Amino acid sequence: MSAAAAARRLRGAPDLAITVLEQGPEVSYSACGIPYWVGDVVGDRDELIARTPREFAARDIEVRTGTRAEELDLDAGTVRTSTGETLGFDRLVVATGGRPLRPDVPGLDAPGVHGVHRLADGADIRGAVAAGARRAVVLGGGYIGLEMAEALQARGLGVTVVLADDLPMSLLDRDMGERICKAMGDMGIDVQPGQPVRAIETGADGAVRAVTTDAGSYPCDLVVLGLGMGPEVGLARAAGLRIGETGAVEVDRTQRSRSHEAVYAAGDCSQTFHRLTGEAVHVALGTHANKQGRVAGSVIGGQAARFAGVLGTALTRVGDLEIGRTGLCSGQAEAAGYDVRAETIEGTTRAGYFPGAAGITVKLVSDSGSGQLLGGQVVGGPGAGKRIDVLATAIWAGLTAEEFAGSDLSYAPPFSPVYDPVVVAARVASRVEQG
Amino acid sequence: MSAAAAARRLRGAPDLAITVLEQGPEVSYSACGIPYWVGDVVGDRDELIARTPREFAARDIEVRTGTRAEELDLDAGTVRTSTGETLGFDRLVVATGGRPLRPDVPGLDAPGVHGVHRLADGADIRGAVAAGARRAVVLGGGYIGLEMAEALQARGLGVTVVLADDLPMSLLDRDMGERICKAMGDMGIDVQPGQPVRAIETGADGAVRAVTTDAGSYPCDLVVLGLGMGPEVGLARAAGLRIGETGAVEVDRTQRSRSHEAVYAAGDCSQTFHRLTGEAVHVALGTHANKQGRVAGSVIGGQAARFAGVLGTALTRVGDLEIGRTGLCSGQAEAAGYDVRAETIEGTTRAGYFPGAAGITVKLVSDSGSGQLLGGQVVGGPGAGKRIDVLATAIWAGLTAEEFAGSDLSYAPPFSPVYDPVVVAARVASRVEQG
Questions:
Q1: CA distance to partner chain B, nearest, from residue A382 (Å)
Q2: Hey, are the CB atoms on A386 and B415 less than 8 Å from each other?
Q3: Which contiguous run of DSSP H or E holds residue B36?
Q4: How far is CA B133 from CA B140, B158, B204, in A?
């Protein structure tokens, strides 16, 4: 929809006809809001819908919901749809999105196993809760896993989070992951780390009864997949579009397919690149999807545009603990060949004496030789999380720890100590540089 | 104290003796916390004291409180103190701070007129409230003025803010200042703009009775000076130190005096420079004072360091309205010769559907030709204010609106819309660039 809107802004309806095919019932909804709808923080499903097909129609963008693109013929320039039509195109944007990653274990197709992807998934999970589900197992400890664990606990279910890894939030360093793990335990969420799932056990009625690992069996009547999102590329692959090393559609910086000039791909189905390393990555996040769609639409509309890469910035919360990360964590930075320096500091979100001051831990990863900032991680109480944007901006701009340490950030007692914790971390990192 | 601590970190006590002369009873206290102490948000005066003389003594820094430096003899390398001693020095740091600006009007020396500077001022104002003061007039609508108006109102006083300017917060653009003015009015604070004070009227007992302007007379039993802080340079000027165009001690980027090699100056008594324009400015804020002290102490301790300039970043709140600014406002940018482009957007602090989402207005000032970001202003509900740090970092790094618009900021429904309002503002600014 971002691509359609961007193209329409640049070229009017007489000049460019735009048709959107969507297999589901909605376009432009907040998948990231589903955990909060499940948790009753957001009361009404319709609040998660940003724009309706009718609103797009008013801008001369034809949206066909309930219409699946079944097959692409890229040489002929046609799409065959589930409604039996064949539509021609001059330019095609593949925006088939992602799909929840599913472990290859018995029982995964049982009706009590849910991804967190479409609004219908949210409705199904809410239905299971309303029908009396009492125990849930969440597979995976990424953002969706954490958010769903909290949501289901808030609805009164007992929740176990089963992790294949040792710790939740694998894109944070170990010491930060440990804090998150502890906070989850303190909330009463049962975390079971280091246990790849082996089977979903079902009863005679086909309903989910337990999740089994090598270490134990966790009774439940609801299983939620929080293992991340992979690219949905079935349609693209079948049509012969080049698929990159990450399994997503390979595109250039204008989101144009590497294999077909008339075809663009954007969002969770497309491969992108890391801003710092240049490496091909697949990061399924709405922010990138929106921007990539806008780039594709702008280019199709005739205006130069290019996607500037990702740092992998992300933010979530579990209970009162806010968790942000950006850039490279220590392991990623080492793998990319940097001489890694990591510094962690403890501070407070407000002046220490100000009511509501909460603890905050900031970790900075930098390159030991140049001082260049490579990554940041923030874990702390209310007000901590959004500070990750300051680090993301510093890293985006290529600042060194020392350059950033000198920066002129705001101070007022209700908002931060005299030196904001992100600057304290940078100062420690730059002082280490200077010996 | 920052200078002393930095020098001590680099050079031990046998190598460098450090003596601090302080005329008042405390060092290292949070002047910015005084309004919150007056407002009973912070309960205990001692919470505002960051470090005591005893703590410095433990690090071999001798602090003499109640000891005023009366006279400097820079050629002889001596300081004469109020206790009748003459101390010698090899290096001197002048850190005499600022003083509340005072209009030259009758009655200003009445006992009911208070600056907001030292902890004793806070104690005096608290005393006046405890003694039954019922109406206060605050002169000036900068940070201190706003914070004191709110604090006194919270303590049950009727509060009038008398402004010489048309609007509060003169370092924000008009449209932003109008929002603040309205919020103050909505809180029940009486704002009287465009009225330089003409006199403080006192009764037969010498107590304050009213503040008079050309437009009216505002009864009160308490007057608070919120007109800003000027540099306190009496001692430096008498000693022959060169005073800059802003009225503060002129220093180079190592905080060394321009006129005397052995003398440094840091904090509110010293002149500094604007990061973007290079112009001499005087900005009395604790963040700069801390950093400048550290630079002076590092250089004296033998380590290279330099102050990197100020953007004038600042943050406050009045009621639920958070107010941040950084860099150049439109008027400053025009005066500096830029071809100014200013764009203002409205957004929400969280996803629009998420409980607690509040309105936020972001204004970006950029250079029309190059796209370089020059300034940012943020006004909005809880969670709005600290976003000014993201803009401050982008401006610090020299990003254009377009470069910043592509940046990878965090998104999660409890924390922001998919596009953070600061990025939306940058996108609008860069789209305007592109025509």
A1: 10
A2: yes
A3: helix B34-38
A4: 20, 9, 17
The position carrying tokens 């306190």 is: B232
Closest CA to A143 of A361, A318, A328, A375: A318
Report the chain B residue with the minimal C-alpha distance to residue A147: B412
Task: Give 10-residue mean pLDDT values along chain B (435 residues).
Answer: 97 96 94 97 94 96 98 97 98 97 95 95 97 97 96 98 96 96 97 97 94 97 96 98 98 97 98 98 96 97 96 96 98 97 97 97 96 98 98 98 97 96 96 58
User: Of B32, B220, B269, B329, which residue is the catalytic one?
Assistant: B32
Nearest CA to A117 among A41, A31, A36?
A31
Q: Which helix (H) or strand (E) holds A160?
A: strand A158-162
Q: H or E stretch including B187?
A: helix B174-187
**Inter-residue contact B208 to B222 (CB < 8 Å):** yes
Mean pLDDT of A412-431: 95
Distance (Å, rounded) from C-alpha B224 to C-alpha B200? 11
What is the residue whose two structure tokens read 């802003």? B246
Q: What is the DSSP string of A345-386?
A: EEEESS-TTSTT--EEEEEEEEETTT-BEEEEEEEESTTSGG
Residues A142, A144, A149: CA angle, nearest 5 degrees: 95
Distance CA A375, CA A312 (A): 10
| A313, A393, A434 ranked by CB distance to B393: nearest | A393
Task: Indicate the pairing of strand B92-94 with strand B98-100.
Answer: unpaired
**CA distance, residue A95 to nearest chain B CA (Å):** 18
DSSP letters, A120-137, are: HHHHHHHHHHHTT--EEE
Take residue A149 and report the two structure tokens written for it: 């664990």
- Active centre residues of A (catalytic): 32
A354 and B33 in contact by Cβ < 8 A? yes
**Beta carbons of B27 and B53 less than 8 angstroms apart:** yes
* Among A389, A380, A390, A382, residue whose Cα is nearest residue B356: A382
The tally of CA atoms less than 13 A away on the side-chain side of residue A189 is 31
On chain A, the residues whose CB falls within 8 A of the CB of B312 are 408
Sort residue A389 into left (φ over 0), alpha (ψ -120 to 50) or beta: alpha
Nearest to B326 by CA among B312, B337, B338, B315: B312
Domains of chain A: 102-227 (3.50.50.60), 317-433 (3.50.50.60)
Query: Which whole-number Å values give the CA distances from B147 to B159, B223, B290, in the listed order?
Result: 12, 14, 22
Nearest CB partner across the interface for A41, out of B314, B355, B410: B355
As given in the structure block, the two tokens for residue A392 are 């993301």
Percent of chain A whose predicted confidence (pLDDT) is above 90: 98
Look up residue A238 and give its two tokens.
């079948």
The pLDDT of residue A433 is above 70: no
Write the CB contacts of B74 (distance below 8 Å, at least 6 apart in sequence).
B92, B239, B240, B241, B260, B262, B263
**Per-residue pLDDT tens for A65-114?**
999 999 999 999 999 999 999 999 999 999 999 999 999 999 999 999 99
Bridge partners (DSSP) listed for residue B419: none
CB pairs under 8 A between A and B: 201
- Dihedral angle of Cα B56, B60, B61, B64, to the nearest 10 degrees: 90
Q: CA nearest B325 in A: which residue?
A: A410
Give the position of tokens 């437009």: B215
The residue among B407, B427, B430 with the most chain A CBs within 10 A of its CB, best to mutate, is B407
Predicted interface score ipTM higher than 0.85? yes
Q: Do A411 and B315 touch (CB under 8 A)?
A: yes
* Non-local CB neighbours of A165 within 8 Å, separated by 6+ positions: A141, A193, A194
Distance CA A8, CA B39 (A): 54
